Structures are given as structure tokens and as C-alpha cells.
């Protein structure tokens, strides 16, 4: 095999193993599509990698007994060993097979029987087997599977111990849907058992979920001391190179072959506690190459539990408190000396956490201790809360006045005053503002604060964040992203107090533009205390909605609501998105009930704030729309639209959104006259507040044109609406090319309906402008046939073909000829380009 072939195989191999194992073969085929003769070698190499990965991560006993056949396994059933009769196989232990067996001298007693085959029984296994016998004999604790008997029979060494009828601790917590406190109480029982083992001078060395079972009665049992080590002076000095641990829970010193101590078990307990709370391990093993997991354990700090919290995988449903994050992080430190020095210390901190007392790793500041005092004494503290609030507000005002830097604060106040006035006068609902005026002000404001980027970075970040907030409210996410991209590096370099706000705004902007993975990245960079804040939970909920994970979105948005100011804009937004998530999940009745309850609660608390009540009413229409209940939306929506227009006025964006939703529903039902009426109502709300270049405005003009494009309607009105929609889309810098092309296609079709030569030429110019052609690359693949058919019709219906010299064109010469008219040339290029794209499935006809 040539060096070049070897290089290709290795490249394919490297590309494949960067993906989950289930995708390896497909990736290799893709990488070697032009060299199929090398695929077999690459797949063989990947198969060897899979087998090696299994060997590197299974226990020593499993590797030693892999050659046993199923027939041989079955031959054990019914066999007598000592005073025990084997009933069934339970699995593999650290040194041998583990069976369920009956005590023949006491038939009602069932035990777990561990057996080692003589041909596998070397000196090392013999020493470990003997050690396990001694260890089990010295341990006497209700949380540890007790020792029954040990001996040998016909050359087979065996140990019998208590048979535990239970399931792994994390799985038990998942099945029982235990809250955080219930899980920690079970974990505390496990700590009692491990602490007993340590007091008996025994280190377990392999604490993991499979070795911690919970019986149906809730009793926790620690199993499998097969690789446990006596904790004596000699063993503390001993360094071992046996890889008999489980990599996913192994401490760094075990991987490095260093001394094993109490801290080793503390680390494994930290891994188990992490899995019990988050539902996932700190580092996953399933799709990693051999050695990669060990590298992560040795070099990479485990991510915060809340970043990997997965309720579906068994994690807790509550938010994970910072104190608990600190406790687990200390247990998982890389350096053994930096962890808890004993299990009792870990147990003490968890006890303090459960009692709302300060923990040892929280820093112990006055603010922290005060927060804990309040948590323990909520009733007493609540009595004085009002007085404290009044005093604090006066104190804050004084501090701010004393810290003000006049020059820059004057600039900030001027800018903010202009913005506030612009938006306040434009739209009472506060959703958008007068977009024609506001966007100009925003653009000028971005230019005005540019000098501060160098002169006063702190002020720049604050003002950039404020302007971006206004841009996001307007739905212009792209300019907001550009501005925030400038502010973030400064905020991080200067440790600016608005750093988290900027990260959240960037995440929101990316979700708006459907860049979900980018949004996740920004969220992961938030300070740990901010990741479970109300605004962060809203963004996480919207990401889940983008991924169509409706149950997760509902869970996150419900978590967000108590953390948001009741009745504020974020609270209303979260209520709206929550109702939509519930409806998308199929529970329409529950979603509608949610919006009605929110509207009722808000109406009682703030009877005079009609604009927010209108937004909640709009949510009811959104739920109907999400559920596809177009008939009820078209019929019952009229009352909601009238209520909103009466409450907050006709020229508001909320009134426009309500009318637009009802109009779209009527349009889907074919009730075009009614639809056109509501679309015109929508434009009354959008045009004075959002402006023509806003997507909601120009899309509504497009929908109105479609509703009017029916017999007996004035064609001039239809054409006018299409042209207005195109003008709006072309003036929106964030508009997608595919949207403009669609509008031009429909306008062209409408113009061609007159059937005259002039109307066809107008249709050609509308569809294929000389200096702005429709290109194949701008058309979604699924729309090639529709665009190709229309291009084909126009090309052969106008004088493009007949005007060609020296002779009229036909389908075999059209794609190679040079045409004089630019519009015909563009049209022909589009048509022939679509032919090329569609060649694999059959060409679009050119005649």
C-alpha cells in the first residue's frame, strides 16, 4: 500500500472518530467516496478501535472471561459449590462471576456467590480474593452488603455475601422522581457506609452507580469490595499500576498509578453525587476514544452540574444551588490534597447545606451568611423587610450620587433620554417604538458612542447594551449582534458589571436568528450564579423550543417565572412562550387555561395597565395558531382583536399582531375577503410603529396581495401590494434573498394574468431584472421546480427565443446561445442553471 493510501485511510479514521461511534462508518464512506478501494481497510481499523475501547474500559475480570461461551455460562446453573446451589447468573464482579445461589442448609436464604475459575486463578487474583474475604469479614454496617461465607470447592474459590434486591442509586432516584433533598438524604446514608469502611481501614476504590444499590424499602447498600484496599501504613506508601478501576469514576491518581487514599473514594463519591443530581456524568464515555476520557479526568475541570443538568436522564427538576455546586467541585478537585480530607467532612458540608447553614467552601462572607440566616428564618425576616427596603433605597441613591462621574454620566443620560422619549412616544405597548424614527436614532446612537470604545470602555459597554436592548425589542437582531460583539471583549477585559447582560443579549439575538448552537455557547459563558436567573432560563427555554423539545421548554419557562418581576415585560413574554410550548406539546386545553389564568392574575393586580393585558390576550391567539385551530381563530379572534384595539388603540404593534394572526387563519380557510380586512387592520398597527422595512409589515402587504388576488378584485390593487411588499423587503438589510425572490415570482405571475404581450414583458422585467437577476443559488432546493417552470413559461412566451439571430432558439440551442437582452440572458441562465442542479433527478423542461 502506498504512503498516499495510508495517509487517506488515517485521515478518514481521524475524521470518523471525532463523531459518535454509530456514525463512524458513514463518515468513513463520505471521506473515501472517491477512493472506495480503501474503505475496507478504514472500516477494519475502526472496528479494531471499537474493540480496543471496550478492553480499555471494562474491568479486569470481564477481560479475562470474554472467551466464555453462552453454553458454558448456562452450564453453571444448578451447579453446587460448597453449601450453595447456583440459581442464576447476576453478572461479573472484580475477580469472577457472580451468581444468585440458594443456601442448601437454609433454603429460604438466597445469597450472591462470587466464583473464580481455576485456570484464571493466578497469584494476583488469589491475593485480591483473599483480601476481599478479610475486608468483608471486618465490615459490619447496615449500608454494606454483609459477608456470609467463603471457601473452596473442587478447585473453585468462592465468597458468598448478602443478595441485594435493588437498583443503582441514580436509577432509583429517576424512577421515584425524587426531589433534591430526597436524593441527598439517600446519599448521606451511603456516606455513612463509606465512612464506616474508612474507619475500618478499608478504601473501596471502585465506588460507582452499579455498586450502590437501593432496595425497594429505600435502604442503600454498598457492594463489591473486590478491588478494595486495606488502609494501613504500607498501603499508603504503595503505588500500583493495576488498571482495575472504572475510568468514568476513577480519580486522577488512579489513572496515573499513584497512591490510593481516602481522597480517592471522595473523588468517586463526587462523581456519583454529580450523576445523582445532574442526571449525567461529568464526562461521558460512550463516544470517546481510548485515552481521551483519562485525559479529560486529568486535565479538564468538570463542568458545572447545572450546565449538564438533564431531567430526562434522571437529573433533578429543581435549579441546582451554588453551594451544592461548590461541594461537588471540591470533591472533584484534581489534587487529592485539595479535596475533602475525609468522608465525614463531605458529609458535614452536605448536612449544613440541608440545614441552610453556611458551608465550609463558600468563603464565609457577611453577605453569604446573612443570606443563609434569612433562609433559616424567613418568617422573622419578612416582618422587617419593608423597613429594610425603604432604608436601602435611600442609601443606594446616596451612593450613586457620590460615585457619579459627571462628564460621562451626562453623555449617558443625554443618550438614554433621547432613546426613552423616542420609544415612549412611538408605541404605548413598549414592544417596538416608532421604527422609522427609532431606527434612525439607534443608528445615530451607535455612531455617537463609537469614540467611547477607546476613551471610556466602561461607558461604551453600558450604552451599547442599552442600545442593543432597544434593537432587540424592535426585532432587528443582526445590528444588535454586531454592536454586542464589540462590547463583549471589552466587558470581559474590564470585568464590567454588565458582562452577563451582554452575554444574555447575544444569546437572545442568536436565538432570534436561529443560531441555536451559538446561543448555547454564550449561555455557557455566564457566571454560574447567572445561569439559572429568570432571563437566562427564558433563553434556555427558547432554545429548547427551537429544538422542538417542548417538555423541556415548558420546564425551563416555568422555572423562570418565579424569578421574574410579576407583570413585567419579561414575565409577560415568558408566559406567552410557555403557553406556546405547552400547545406545541399537544396540550391545547392546558395552554389556553394558562393564558386565561395569567390574564386574570394580571388584571386583578394591575387593572389600569391595559397594554400588558392586551399582550396576554394576544398570547391566546398565538396558542390557537400554534395548535392549528384556524376555524376558531378566525371566528373567535374577532372579539380579541376588537378588545385590543379598543383598549390600547389602533396604531399599536400589539393590535397589528392580533389582526395579522386572525387574518392569516381566515386566509388558510379560503375566506379571503375577511382575511384582507384583518390584514388591513394589521397594517394600521404596523406601519406607524414598525415602518415598511420591518418583516411584519412587508409580509403583511404580501399576504394582503395574495388575499386580493382573486376574481373580481382590481388587479392594480394586487400589483400595488406586491410591489409594496418587495420595496419593504429590499429596504430591510436582514431580509433573506429567498423572500424577495418569492415576492417577485408572485408579482410576475399576477402581471402575466392579463395575457397581453405587454403584460408578459412586464412580468419578465418583474421576475428577471437586468441588474438584479434571480440566481439558482438564491432559490431553496425544494422550490427549483416551481421557479424553473415559471422561467420556462416566460422564456418561450416573450420574444427572447424568437428575437435570437440568425434563427429562433429551440431547447437544444437555448443554453449555449448568446442573447442580446439582459433580462432574457438572466432568465435563460436561471433556467439552464436549474437544469444542471436537477440533472440527478431529471431536468426541468426547457420547452
TrEMBL record:
<protein>
    <recommendedName>
        <fullName>Protein kinase domain-containing protein</fullName>
    </recommendedName>
</protein>
<keyword id="KW-1133">Transmembrane helix</keyword>
<dbReference type="InterPro" id="IPR017441">
    <property type="entry name" value="Protein_kinase_ATP_BS"/>
</dbReference>
<dbReference type="InterPro" id="IPR011990">
    <property type="entry name" value="TPR-like_helical_dom_sf"/>
</dbReference>
<feature type="binding site">
    <location>
        <position position="114"/>
    </location>
    <ligand>
        <name>ATP</name>
    </ligand>
</feature>
<keyword id="KW-0418">Kinase</keyword>
<dbReference type="GO" id="GO:0004674">
    <property type="term" value="F:protein serine/threonine kinase activity"/>
</dbReference>
<feature type="transmembrane region" description="Helical">
    <location>
        <begin position="379"/>
        <end position="400"/>
    </location>
</feature>
<dbReference type="GO" id="GO:0005524">
    <property type="term" value="F:ATP binding"/>
</dbReference>
<keyword id="KW-0547">Nucleotide-binding</keyword>
<keyword id="KW-0472">Membrane</keyword>
<dbReference type="InterPro" id="IPR008271">
    <property type="entry name" value="Ser/Thr_kinase_AS"/>
</dbReference>
<dbReference type="InterPro" id="IPR000719">
    <property type="entry name" value="Prot_kinase_dom"/>
</dbReference>
<keyword id="KW-0067">ATP-binding</keyword>
<keyword id="KW-0808">Transferase</keyword>
<keyword id="KW-0812">Transmembrane</keyword>
<feature type="domain" description="Protein kinase">
    <location>
        <begin position="84"/>
        <end position="354"/>
    </location>
</feature>
<dbReference type="Pfam" id="PF00069">
    <property type="entry name" value="Pkinase"/>
</dbReference>
<dbReference type="InterPro" id="IPR011009">
    <property type="entry name" value="Kinase-like_dom_sf"/>
</dbReference>
Amino acid at each position: 500500500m502506498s504512503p498516499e493510501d495510508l495517509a487517506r485511510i488515517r485521515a478518514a479514521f481521524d475524521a470518523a472518530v471525532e463523531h459518535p461511534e454509530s456514525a463512524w462508518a458513514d463518515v468513513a464512506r463520505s471521506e473515501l467516496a472517491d477512493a472506495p478501494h480503501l474503505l475496507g481497510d478504514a472500516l477494519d481499523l475502526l472496528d479494531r478501535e471499537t474493540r480496543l475501547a471496550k478492553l480499555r474500559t471494562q474491568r479486569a475480570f470481564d477481560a479475562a472471561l470474554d472467551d466464555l461461551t453462552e453454553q458454558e455460562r448456562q452450564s453453571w446453573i444448578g451447579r453446587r459449590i460448597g453449601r450453595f446451589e447456583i440459581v442464576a447468573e447476576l453478572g461479573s464482579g472484580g475477580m469472577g462471576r457472580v451468581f444468585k445461589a440458594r443456601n442448601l442448609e437454609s433454603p429460604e436464604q438466597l445469597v450472591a456467590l462470587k466464583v473464580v475459575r481455576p485456570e484464571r486463578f493466578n497469584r494476583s487474583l488469589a491475593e485480591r480474593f483473599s483480601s476481599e474475604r478479610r475486608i468483608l469479614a471486618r465490615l459490619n454496617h447496615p449500608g454494606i452488603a454483609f459477608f456470609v461465607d467463603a471457601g473452596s470447592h473442587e478447585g473453585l474459590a468462592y465468597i458468598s455475601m448478602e443478595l441485594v434486591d435493588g437498583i443503582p442509586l441514580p436509577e432509583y432516584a429517576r424512577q421515584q422522581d425524587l426531589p433534591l433533598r430526597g436524593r441527598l438524604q439517600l446519599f448521606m446514608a451511603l456516606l455513612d457506609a463509606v465512612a464506616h469502611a474508612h474507619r475500618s481501614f478499608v478504601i473501596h476504590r471502585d465506588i460507582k452507580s452499579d455498586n450502590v444499590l437501593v432496595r425497594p424499602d429505600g435502604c442503600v447498600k454498598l457492594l463489591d469490595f473486590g478491588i478494595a484496599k486495606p488502609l494501613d501504613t504500607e498501603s499508603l506508601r504503595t503505588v500500583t499500576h493495576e488498571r482495575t478501576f472504572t475510568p468514568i469514576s476513577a480519580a486522577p491518581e488512579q489513572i496515573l498509578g499513584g497512591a490510593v487514599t481516602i481522597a480517592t473514594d471522595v473523588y468517586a463519591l463526587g462523581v456519583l453525587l454529580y450523576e445523582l443530581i445532574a442526571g449525567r456524568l461529568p464526562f461521558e464515555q460512550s463516544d470517546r476514544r481510548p485515552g481521551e476520557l483519562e485525559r479529560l479526568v486529568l486535565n479538564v475541570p468538570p463542568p458545572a452540574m447545572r450546565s449538564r443538568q438533564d431531567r430526562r436522564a434522571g437529573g433533578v427538576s429543581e435549579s441546582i444551588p451554588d453551594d451544592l455546586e461548590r461541594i461537588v467541585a471540591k470533591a472533584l478537585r484534581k489534587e487529592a490534597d485539595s479535596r475533602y480530607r475525609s468522608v465525614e467532612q463531605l458529609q458535614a458540608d452536605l448536612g449544613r447545606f440541608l440545614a441552610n447553614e453556611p458551608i465550609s467552601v463558600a468563603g464565609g462572607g457577611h453577605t453569604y451568611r446573612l443570606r443563609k440566616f434569612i433562609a433559616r428564618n424567613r418568617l422573622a425576616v419578612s416582618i422587617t423587610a419593608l423597613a429594610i427596603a425603604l432604608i436601602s433605597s435611600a442609601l443606594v441613591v446616596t451612593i450613586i450620587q457620590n460615585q457619579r462621574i459627571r462628564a460621562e454620566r451626562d453623555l449617558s443620560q443625554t443618550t438614554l433620554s433621547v432613546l426613552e422619549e423616542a420609544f415612549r412616544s412611538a408605541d404605548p405597548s413598549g414592544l417596538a417604538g416608532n421604527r422609522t424614527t427609532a431606527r434612525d436614532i439607534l443608528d445615530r446612537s451607535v455612531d455617537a458612542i463609537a469614540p467611547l470604545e477607546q476613551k471610556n470602555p466602561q461607558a461604551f459597554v453600558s450604552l451599547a447594551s442599552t442600545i442593543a436592548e432597544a434593537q432587540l425589542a424592535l426585532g432587528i437582531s443582526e445590528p444588535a449582534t454586531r454592536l454586542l460583539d464589540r462590547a463583549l471583549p471589552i466587558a470581559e477585559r474590564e470585568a464590567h458589571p454588565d458582562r452577563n447582560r451582554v452575554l444574555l443579549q447575544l444569546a437572545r439575538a442568536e436565538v432570534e436568528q436561529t443560531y441555536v448552537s451559538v446561543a448555547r455557547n454564550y449561555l455557557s459563558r455566564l457566571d454560574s450564579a447567572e445561569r439559572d436567573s429568570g432571563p437566562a432560563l427564558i433563553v434556555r427555554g427558547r432554545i429548547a423550543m427551537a429544538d422542538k423539545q417542548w417538555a423541556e421548554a415548558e420546564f425551563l419557562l416555568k422555572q423562570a417565572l418565579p424569578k421574574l418581576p410579576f407583570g413585567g415585560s419579561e414575565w409577560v413574554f415568558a408566559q406567552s412562550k410557555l403557553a406556546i410550548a405547552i400547545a406545541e406539546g399537544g396540550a391545547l386545553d392546558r395552554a389556553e387555561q394558562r393564558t386565561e389564568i395569567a390574564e386574570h392574575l394580571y388584571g386583578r393586580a394591575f387593572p389600569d395597565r391595559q397594554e400588558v393585558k392586551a399582550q396576554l390576550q394576544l398570547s391566546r391567539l398565538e396558542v390557537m395558531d400554534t395548535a392549528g385551530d384556524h376555524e376558531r381563530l378566525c371566528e373567535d379572534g374577532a372579539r380579541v382583536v376588537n378588545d385590543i384595539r379598543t383598549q390600547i388603540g389602533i396604531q399599536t404593534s400589539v393590535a397589528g399582531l392580533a389582526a395579522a394572526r386572525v387574518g392569516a387563519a381566515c386566509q388558510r380557510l379560503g375566506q379571503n375577503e375577511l382575511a384582507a380586512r384583518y390584514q388591513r387592520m394589521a397594517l394600521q398597527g404596523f406601519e406607524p410603529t414598525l415602518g415598511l422595512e420591518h418583516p411584519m409589515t412587508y409580509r403583511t402587504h404580501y399576504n394582503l396581495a395574495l388575499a386580493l388576488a382573486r376574481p373580481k378584485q382590481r388587479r392594480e390593487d394586487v400589483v400595488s401590494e406586491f410591489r409594496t411588499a418587495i420595496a419593504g423587503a429590499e429596504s430591510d438589510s436582514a431580509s433573506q434573498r429567498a423572500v424577495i425572490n418569492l415576492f417577485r415570482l408572485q408579482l410576475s405571475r399576477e402581471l402575466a394574468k392579463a395575457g397581453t404581450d405587454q403584460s408578459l414583458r412586464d412580468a419578465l422585467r418583474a421576475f428577471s431584472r437586468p441588474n438584479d437577476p434571480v440566481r439558482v443559488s438564491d432559490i431553496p432546493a425544494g422550490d427549483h421546480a416551481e421557479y424553473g417552470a415559471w422561467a420556462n413559461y416566460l422564456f418561450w412566451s416573450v420574444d427572447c427565443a424568437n428575437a435570437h439571430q440568425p434563427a429562433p432558439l429551440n431547447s437544444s440551442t437555448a443554453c449555449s446561445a448568446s442573447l442580446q437582452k439582459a433580462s432574457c440572458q438572466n432568465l435563460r441562465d436561471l433556467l439552464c442553471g436549474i437544469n444542471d442542479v436537477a440533472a440527478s433527478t431529471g431536468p426541468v423542461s426547457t420547452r
